[in-house]
Amino acid sequence: RTFFRVLGGATLVSIAGGIGIFVYVTQKDRHPGSQLPYDPEKKTIVILGSGWGATSLLKTLDTSEYNVVMISPKNYFLFTPLLPSVAVGTLSPKAILQPTRYLARHKARAVTVIEAEAKEIDPFNKTVTFEDDTEIKGEVSHTTISYDYLVHAVGAEVQTFGIPGVQEKACFMKELSDAEIMQRRFKDCIESAAFPGQDSTEIDRLLHIVIVGGGPTGIEVSGEIHDFLEDDLKAWYPELAGRIRISLVEALPSVLPMFSKQLIEYTESTFKESKIEILTKTMVKEVKDKSVVLQMPDKSIQEVPCGMVVWAGGNKGRKITQDLMAQYPNVQTNRRGLTVDDQLRLAGADGSIFAIGDCTSTSYAPTAQVASQQGAYLARVFAQMAKKNTLQAKLNQLEQSEGAVTDTVDKANRKSEIETTRKLIANVKVRPFHYSHQGSLAYIGSDKAIADLPFANGNIASAGVATFLFWRSAYLSTLFSLRNRTLVANDWIITKIFGRDLSRD
Ligand code: FAD
Ligand code: NAI
Predict the structure, then answer these.
(1) Which architecture, in CATH terms, is 38-155+317-386?
(2) What does the alpha-carbon distance between residue 279 and residue 296 come to, in Å, rounded to a whole number?
């Protein structure tokens, strides 16, 4: 009995302690303290973007050493790995957003956060011109500012290859608005199929969903749509759900080329069980209002009726990135993106421009993992540069006043101090960026995920329900804030208990 009393007491104390810590952390987060003001003596870093690279940089950066300005058309960070879950309503949009100001207000020095799109970079005069592209504009909505250092972290945009109809008629899966549009269209297809008197062929067309691109985005979207169908639509649209068809079209001979062979096979067999049809060696040639034109493996052309097309065909550089490349026509020649050196400095520039994430072309895949490690690395580079600058200022001062020292002992001491400072400066080294791969993970639907995890000198491939639980816990812990973790965990529980929402706003 005593044992159970002690156990009960310890449990109560742990729960109370947990609640206490939760309340303390959330309240501390909600009520940020005062910050250092702008300091004209400090150098100014302008960061373009508020995605994986930029946010990771801001999070790690010691702002007491710099003035920081962050410019992005989105005033939030979007946790892209869970975007396909938003597209079917498993998660609410707010759960995977983190307003940039929540992070900026907790930095040592006030960070200027500007909701605007950078339009022009002048690397020779060190200026950035940006514009408020939103619906409501003030008297001033276009301006130019100077920078000492520029971090280009604008990501990439959807690559459509100029295929007719893709831009105008397909849904994408890149931004939050894309997920919201996809959800609305998908529900519209179902409600239109349920319209009284709808012809059977038309019902089949409306309920045919075509996903283009067998990369991780296309696979995850297919898996999520399948879950929505199995978990919810079968119950609420019993007469229609069985007619919903999901087709995944991929131009290459296999889906998920970045995963190991056994995981590709596992995904293909899971999709087969889930009745998701995979069409490999098949290329989308045109997206029409009510169909998609495919070039089949035998090169024949087929027009397939469908209700909706989701385009996940890859990425390309943004205009601002292409314009920056055009400033260095002899060096920036890689069409995949900006060329940087091993310290992420823009090749060809004077060392004041850095580029990270999907806008660069490196030997690494364009992933969140790479972008966030590059952001954190750059914060360390800036810390080293600040250290060097402080030591250099001290050295300048010591050298300038050296002549005024007359006493022999003081002279010798000064000489030794100068020598020590020089050595300290020489010791401030910036190591090259080194990427540490933590593994590749993807959700494939039916509560299953696949994972290629680095182990010793090789790889462990894992798949199934346990991997799905690992996938969930990995992403829950990767979310940037306690607020997001709470919202995501809450949505998962709510979806499990009550199912996904069917209403179409
Ligand atoms: P982004 O995160 O795209 O950020 C770019 C930022 O720049 C945005 O804030 C944007 O608003 C801003 N911007 C755009 N234009 C301008 C401009 N002109 N001026 C100023 N700012 C601008 N990777 C993984 O490693 N694991 C995953 O599980 C994973 N899942 C994904 C799921 C989906 C659906 C998608 C689409 C991607 C996924 N990725 C994943 C890839 C990952 O999201 C990207 O590699 C990552 O976002 C790249 O980070 P970034 O900082 O370069 O760009
Ligand atoms: P992707 O570039 O990886 O895949 C696009 C696919 O579309 C390619 O396989 C391509 O062959 C195919 N395609 C292009 N045009 C086509 C056409 N006309 N017809 C048929 N198929 C066509 O793009 P994705 O999936 O958006 O991924 C982008 C980046 O984000 C990758 O680096 C990826 O690793 C990363 N990512 C990672 C995730 C994860 O780790 N879970 C999830 C989502 C993205």
Answers:
(1) 3-Layer(bba) Sandwich (3.50)
(2) 9
